[in-house]
Design goal:
58% of the residues lie in helices and 0% in strands. By secondary structure, the chain is mainly alpha-helical. The longest helix is centred in the middle third of the chain and has 21 residues. It is elongated.
Length: 76
């Protein structure tokens, strides 16, 4: 079965998001919350990756231990 703009139900909500760029902007706006959540998740992952690249000494200088990186990025 091929997937087109009109026939993406086999992918469910992911298919709707995946093919949103092929739809008019008005229809894609309904996924704004999902897209915003994904963008926020990506930013958190980038921040975690950046902190993970620091040495233990650099982390200690900013008051974060390697075990606390996940919580520090999420603000816990």
């Amino acid at each position: 079965m091929t997937t087109t703009i009109d026939n993406h139900s086999s992918f469910g909500k992911f298919g709707e998001l995946l093919f949103a760029h092929q739809r008019p902007y008005a229809e894609a706006k309904q996924h704004k919350g999902l897209l915003d959540g994904f963008k926020a998740w990506r930013k958190r992952r980038e921040a975690e990756a950046e902190l993970e690249r620091l040495s233990d000494r650099e982390l200690a200088d900013i008051g974060v231990s390697r075990a606390d990186i996940h919580a520090a990025v999420r603000g816990f």
